[in-house]
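Handout, section B. The chain below has 367 residues.
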Amino acid sequence: MRQDITARQAGILCFLMMLSSKILALPSLLYKDVGYFAMIIFLMLLSMEVLFLFVFIKLKEKYINLSFFDILSKFLGKIITKIIYFLFFVYFLIAVVHLIYDNFIYLREAIFENAKIEKFLLIFLPIICALSYKGLNSLARTAEFFYIFIVFGFICCLVLGASSISQFTLPIFENLSITTILNTSFKNIFWFGDFIFFLMIIDKIKVKNGFGKTIMNYVWLCFVVLLIFYFIFYQVYKNTSFMHNNAITDIIAFTNQVENIEKLNLIALLVVMFIIFYQGGVLFYCLNESFSKICTYTNKIQNYILFVLGTIIVFLLFFYSSQKIHLYLANYGKYLGLLIFLILPIYLIFQINFDKNKKIYNKKVKK
């Protein structure tokens, strides 16, 4: 049975993936490096991310029913394709660990400062396993149902954040070299690979007239609300923006609309909790898709047991005790990002334009 999803569902998944990784620590990390130039770097990297999604959509239009593994194998051979899929697997595993780290720290500070990681993992991992194990269609339909609540909650945070700005001021751009700007962009590229998951589901998206436009409509909506979010955040905190690692909650910290700020924090908290479960579900689904192409002799249950154990081991041994995951991503994750977020999409651009075979590559669809 195929796990096809509609263009609307694919667009919603793109919206949630694009939003989830950029509303906690990233605004402060960017500001810490380049001050108000953070807004420009964010705009540049976000635009690049959207551009590459557009490339992926064009790839889908050309090779309608082929999986990404089939497309790469056709032109690069299976050995190189499996190496690329191994890089995908590494990325998705690190992305899950990063998701756990950022959101556990956030939820611990927002709800219960003495919370234990064991309890968080005991709740989080079974839920994302259940979401992804049932298949892409079930995951997408569940996300589709809760999408409107997530958007409404996030817009409420934007409105409350804007209401706490006492005076809009023009940012002061300090003199920065092009080298510094490029180095900062390169260092933070790992946060802008959210659409790589699209390649793992490219053969499962139903193609109808305007399907690409439908997907991009959701992406452009996310693009706009993220820019507004960053602008408001930097207006609220200005020169102290680097100190606030929980941007989604901190943006409403000074609002005077409600006397009890804890009631408002609940809005941001619910937005984050809904998003992280769907992001985790998508990442685990992609882990299985990439791993199953590398190791064809395992089954789904064995794969998920391996993913859970691997996530716990990598998180506890390498990141949780040191609490330096952002430093690791800045120092080493950027090279992984360079390969699969930049070099691979550029190759695909050439592939789409220089493949002279006008035939649309179709295969029979199982009913």
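Note. The chain is about 70% helix and 0% strand. Compare this with the example in section A.
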